[in-house]
Amino acid sequence: MNGVICCVYRSTKKEGTYLYVDKSRGLEVLPEALLELFGKPQQAMTMLLTAERKLARADTGKVLAALAEQGYYLQLPPPSEAYMQEINKHNDKLY
Q1: 50 CB contacts (<8 Å, ≥6 apart)?
Q2: CA Rg, the chain, in Å?
Q3: For FRET with 22, which of 11, 13, 85, 92 sits at 20 to 30 Å CA-CA?
Q4: DSSP 8-state symbol, 25
Q5: What are phi and psi of 54, to 5 degrees?
């Protein structure tokens, strides 16, 4: 079972926003612009991430690919209910 040990950080500026970071590469791989928007990372957990592991709000394959390519993965919060209702209103007009 191969995997990546990753640290998960929560944003201090954006509710529901998380960064998955390859522990071996650390926070140094994060672009400065991302850190400005994200705020000071607060560590939420450390885990072994494998292809078999299910994540609540992210595709494990995409997270592992991003960790391999750039050393981090940004998980944004799900869209708000009001936003989804607005999209549905526009979709109803298509039928």
Answers
A1: 1, 2, 3, 60
A2: 16
A3: 13
A4: T
A5: -95, 140
* Sole residue written with tokens 């994200």: 38
- For residue 21, the cross-strand partners are 7, 72
pLDDT digits (tens, 9 = 90+) for 75-94: 998 876 665 566 666 666 55
Contact by Cβ (8 Å): 9, 21: yes
Instruction: Quote the pLDDT of residue 2.
Output: 81
Residue that has been written with the tokens 């140094």 in this structure? 28
The residues pairing with 75 across neighbouring beta strands, listed in sequence order, are: 18
pTM, two decimals, is 0.80
Fold classified for 4-92: NE1680-like fold (3.10.510)
Q: What is the DSSP letter of 90?
A: H
